[in-house]
């Protein structure tokens, strides 16, 4: 078995998420929506993708899919406590309802899971987005 030396600046973990594609019926609308809520910017197009850089080395690469319905997915974002209220304010400003639970039964409320705060909301294609200030405690 050959061993390739570790190149400086590359991750040493077993796996590090670099990017994921997010299907959207309108990639610009969806990317700009998420970027606006999170207080980020949409990057320059990269082939068929429109990236939103999350600031931690991971991008969500929006890909326009118009040949069939979008299958909603769940995306959760661990956000700084001091930025959470601004995100809620931006959701309210653009008229998007947020919920304290993933089933969207407690509108206009945030949760207090694991000693932090969190909320769920739909993006333009129905992806169930989550912002949270504390990671889930896993067994």
Describe the structure.
Strand 2 and strand 3 form a beta hairpin. The chain is of the alpha/beta class and 139 residues long. It has one domain: 2,3-Dihydroxybiphenyl 1,2-Dioxygenase, domain 1. The mean pLDDT is 93. 18% of the residues lie in helices and 23% in strands. The chain has a 3-stranded mixed beta sheet with strand order 1-3-2, with helices on one face. Strands 4-6-5 form a 3-stranded mixed beta sheet.
Highlighted features:
single chain, 139 residues, alpha/beta, 2,3-Dihydroxybiphenyl 1,2-Dioxygenase, domain 1, three-stranded mixed beta sheet, 6 strands, globular, Glyas_Bleomycin-R_OHBP_Dase, VOC_core, Glyas_Fos-R_dOase_dom, VOC family protein
Rg (CA only)? 17 Å
Uncertain residue ranges:
none
SS class: alpha/beta
Q: How many strands in all?
A: 6
Q: What distance lies between the first and last C-alpha atoms, to the nearest angstrom? A: 35 Å
**Chain-averaged pLDDT:** 93
CATH architecture: Roll
Number of spatially distinct domains: 1
What is the tally of helical segments?
A: 2
Say which CATH homologous superfamily is assigned: 2,3-Dihydroxybiphenyl 1,2-Dioxygenase, domain 1
């Amino acid at each position: 078995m050959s061993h390739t030396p570790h190149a400086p600046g590359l991750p040493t973990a077993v796996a590090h998420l670099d990017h994921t594609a997010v299907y959207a019926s309108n990639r610009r609308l969806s990317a700009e929506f998420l970027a606006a809520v999170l207080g980020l910017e949409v990057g320059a197009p990269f082939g068929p993708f429109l990236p939103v850089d999350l600031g931690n080395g991971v991008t969500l690469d929006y890909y326009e899919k118009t040949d069939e319905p979008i299958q909603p997915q769940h995306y959760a974002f661990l956000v700084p406590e001091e930025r959470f209220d601004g995100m809620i304010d931006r959701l309210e400003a653009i008229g998007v309802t947020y919920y304290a639970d993933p089933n969207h039964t407690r509108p206009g409320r945030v949760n207090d899971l694991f000693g932090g705060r969190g909320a769920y909301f739909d993006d333009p294609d129905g992806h169930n987005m989550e912002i949270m200030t504390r990671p889930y405690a896993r067994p």
